[in-house]
C-alpha cells in the first residue's frame, strides 16, 4: 500500500493554492473546470496492476479474479495474437500502454478505489487543502469538451482536419495512432512516427490544448452515461478518430480503454487569521457617497460579512443544498461555498427577504458608532439601483457603457450564462428562450468566463461610480417585492441590462443576493 501511495503522490501536480498557500494534489490531472480535473492520459496497465496489488490482500480470491481484465480480447481468428494475450497486460514492456479488456463495472470499481486512495492521501497531507474527492468516468459531454481542448468547433483534438503535423519541425508526422490505409497497421518505415501496430504508450504524439494525450486514436474511451466509447482507436480510420466518433461498447475490447475525471468534493477548513472588523476603515472601503443622503455599497454582501452577522446573532444559516442540480459540479458549492475561507469574498446567497431585513437591522446597529444619527442600512429601491448601476451614463444599456457584453479583446464583461447567439431566441410574446445542444447541461457560462457559479464580489471592472458587479454575478434584491435587478451567473445577457428586471418568488435561491444602501 505504501508503494501505491508513493507512486500516486510522485505523479501529482500542484493545482490552485489556497489562502494558506496549501496545494491540491490530483494525480496526473488537467483542470478542465474549477476544481474538476481530467486524467491527462489513458489509464495504463501499470496503474491497473497497482490497483490489483492493493486489492489482492483485501478481498476474497473469487472477487479478486472478477477484477482481472479479459486478455482474450486480443485473440482473433484472422491473426496470431497469442503473444498479446499472454504478455500485453503484465509484461513490463507494456506498463505504459493503455489498459484494455475491462467492463464498465470493473472501471467503476477502480474509480471507487482511487477515490478512497486520493481522499486518504489528501487528508493526511499537511500541504493539501483537499478533504475529499470523487473519481469517476466523465460523461459524454465532459469527455467531448475536454477532448476538444475547450474549442467547441474542433472536430479533432487539434484545429483543422489534417492528420499530419504542419509545423516545420515535425512536418508530415502523424498526429495520432490510427489505421492509415486498408490493412496498414504499422505505417511506413523511415522518419514517420507511426510505429504502433496496436496501441502506443499513453504519452505518444502531442497533447491537445488542455494537455490531454491521445483523445483521438490509440484506444477509444468509455463515458459514464452512454454505452459507447469515444474518439476512435488504433483500429480506426483517420475519419473515425474524430472526437465525436463512437464505438459501441457492449463487452470488453482490445480497442477500448478509459481515462477518469476527478471532482474535488470538499476542502479542508482553515483558520481565519484576521477576523472581519466593522470600523471606519471598513466602512470607507465598502461604501460610496451617491448624494447628500445616500451611500451605496460598492460590493455585493459577501460571505465573510454575512457569516459575521450569523455568528453574532445566531440567525438561521442558509440552506446550502440550494446549489444542488444547478450544474454538474454543484456538490462542490453545496459542501464549501457558504463557510470555506476560499469563498469569504464571494457573494452571500440563499437568504430570504426576511433574512435580509434582520441583517440590515444588525448592520445599522453596528455602524451607529461612525455614521450620522438617523441613517440606516436597507435595500435600495429600483430607481436608486438603476441610477447607481448606470455609473453616470444616462443612456447606457449596461453599467460599463456601450451595447456590448465583451471588451475590445473579446473578454466577457460580466459573470452570466453566456450562450452563443445561435442558441438564444426570442418568442413572439417577447420572452427569451434558450435551446442548448443535447447534453450541454447549461455549462456555456463556465466554458467562456471560467465560472459555473458566482465569482468574488470584486471581479470584473467597476462602473463609473466605482460599483462592482452591477451586472451579472448574482441577481440583487431591491425593496420592491418579487423583483431582482442586474442578472446573475445563471442569467442570459438580456437581463444584464440596467433596465431589465427578473421576477423572484421571494424564496431562498443560489442565484439571489443583495447589497445595501445607507440612507436617512
Strand order of the largest sheet: 3-4-10-5
Structure summary, number of beta strands: 20
The major pleated sheet works out as:
4 strands, antiparallel
Q: Provide the residue-averaged pLDDT.
A: 87
CATH architecture of the largest domain: Alpha-Beta Complex
Q: What is the name of the CATH superfamily of the largest domain? A: paralog of FGE (formylglycine-generating enzyme)
Number of domains: 2
CATH fold-level name of the largest domain: paralog of FGE (formylglycine-generating enzyme)
What portion of residues belong to β-strands?
5-15%
Descriptive account of the structure:
This protein has 520 residues and is an alpha+beta fold. It folds into 2 domains: 2-16 and 24-262, paralog of FGE (formylglycine-generating enzyme); 273-519, Alpha-Beta Complex (paralog of FGE (formylglycine-generating enzyme)), CATH 3.90.1580. Helix content is 23%, strand content 13%. The chain contains 12 helices and 20 strands. It has helices at 2-10, 45-56, 61-67, 82-87, 104-124, 140-147, 280-286, 303-313, 330-336, 353-367, 382-390, 444-449, and strands at residues 12-14, 25-27, 29-33, 36-39, 130-136, 220-222, 228-230, 246-248, 256-257, 261-267, 287-289, 294-297, 376-378, 424-426, 432-434, 475-477, 483-485, 501-503, 512-513, 517-519. The strands form 6 sheets. Strands 3-4-10-5 form a 4-stranded antiparallel β-sheet. A 4-stranded mixed β-sheet has the order 8-7-6-9, with helices on one face. A 4-stranded antiparallel β-sheet has the order 11-12-20-13. Strand 6 (220-222) and strand 7 (228-230) form a beta hairpin. The longest helix has 21 residues, at 104-124. The relative contact order is 0.11. Residues 1-21 and 437-442 have low confidence and may be disordered.
Amino acid at each position: 500500500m505504501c508503494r501505491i501511495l508513493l507512486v500516486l503522490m510522485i505523479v501529482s501536480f500542484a493545482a490552485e493554492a489556497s489562502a494558506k498557500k496549501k496545494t491540491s494534489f490530483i494525480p496526473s490531472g488537467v483542470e478542465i473546470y474549477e476544481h474538476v480535473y481530467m486524467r491527462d492520459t489513458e489509464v495504463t496497465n501499470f496503474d491497473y496492476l497497482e490497483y490489483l496489488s492493493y486489492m489482492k490482500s483485501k478481498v476474497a480470491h473469487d472477487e479478486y479474479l472478477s477484477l482481472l481484465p479479459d486478455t482474450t480480447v486480443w485473440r482473433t481468428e484472422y491473426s496470431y495474437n497469442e503473444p498479446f494475450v499472454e504478455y500485453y497486460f503484465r509484461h513490463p514492456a507494456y506498463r505504459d500502454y493503455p489498459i484494455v479488456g475491462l467492463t464498465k463495472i470493473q472501471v467503476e470499481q477502480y474509480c471507487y478505489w482511487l477515490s478512497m486512495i486520493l481522499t486518504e492521501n489528501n487528508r493526511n497531507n499537511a500541504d493539501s487543502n483537499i478533504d475529499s474527492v470523487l473519481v469517476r468516468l466523465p460523461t459524454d459531454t465532459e469527455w467531448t469538451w475536454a477532448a476538444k481542448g475547450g474549442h467547441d468547433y474542433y472536430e479533432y483534438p487539434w484545429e483543422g482536419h489534417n492528420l499530419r503535423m504542419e509545423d516545420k519541425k515535425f512536418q508530415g508526422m502523424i498526429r495520432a495512432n490510427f489505421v492509415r490505409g486498408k490493412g496498414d497497421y504499422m505505417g511506413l518505415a523511415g522518419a514517420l512516427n507511426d510505429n504502433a501496430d496496436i496501441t502506443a504508450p499513453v504519452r505518444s504524439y502531442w497533447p491537445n490544448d488542455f494537455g490531454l494525450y491521445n483523445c483521438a486514436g490509440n484506444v477509444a474511451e468509455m463515458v459514464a452515461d452512454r454505452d459507447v466509447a469515444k474518439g476512435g482507436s488504433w483500429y480506426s480510420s483517420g475519419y473515425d478518430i474524430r472526437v465525436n466518433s463512437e464505438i459501441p461498447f457492449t463487452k470488453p475490447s482490445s480497442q477500448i480503454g478509459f481515462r477518469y475525471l476527478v471532482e474535488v468534493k470538499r476542502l479542508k477548513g482553515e483558520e481565519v487569521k484576521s477576523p472581519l472588523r466593522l470600523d471606519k476603515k471598513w466602512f470607507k472601503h465598502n461604501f460610496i457617497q451617491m448624494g447628500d443622503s445616500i451611500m451605496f455599497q460598492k460590493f455585493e454582501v459577501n460571505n465573510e460579512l454575512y457569516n459575521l452577522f450569523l455568528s453574532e446573532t445566531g440567525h438561521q444559516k442558509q440552506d446550502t443544498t440550494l446549489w444542488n442540480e444547478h450544474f454538474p459540479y454543484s456538490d462542490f458549492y453545496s459542501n464549501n461555498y457558504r463557510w470555506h475561507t476560499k469563498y469569504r469574498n464571494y457573494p452571500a446567497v440563499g437568504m430570504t427577504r426576511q433574512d435580509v431585513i434582520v441583517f440590515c437591522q444588525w448592520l445599522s446597529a453596528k455602524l451607529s458608532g461612525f455614521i450620522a444619527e438617523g441613517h440606516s442600512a436597507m435595500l435600495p429601491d429600483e430607481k436608486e439601483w438603476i441610477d447607481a448601476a448606470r455609473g453616470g451614463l444616462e443612456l447606457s444599456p449596461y453599467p460599463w457603457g456601450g451595447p456590448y457584453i465583451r471588451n475590445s479583446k473579446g473578454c466577457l464583461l460580466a459573470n452570466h450564462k453566456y450562450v452563443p447567439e445561435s442558441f438564444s431566441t426570442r418568442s413572439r410574446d417577447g420572452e427569451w428562450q434558450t435551446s442548448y445542444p443535447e447534453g450541454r447541461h447549461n455549462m456555456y457560462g463556465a466554458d467562456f468566463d471560467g465560472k459555473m457559479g458566482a465569482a468574488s464580489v470584486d471581479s470584473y471592472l467597476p462602473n463609473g461610480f466605482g460599483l462592482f458587479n452591477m451586472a451579472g454575478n448574482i441577481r440583487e434584491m431591491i425593496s420592491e417585492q418579487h423583483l431582482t435587478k442586474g442578472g446573475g451567473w445563471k442569467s442570459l445577457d438580456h437581463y444584464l441590462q440596467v433596465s431589465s428586471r427578473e421576477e423572484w418568488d421571494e424564496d431562498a435561491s443560489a442565484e439571489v443576493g443583495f447589497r445595501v444602501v445607507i440612507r436617512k
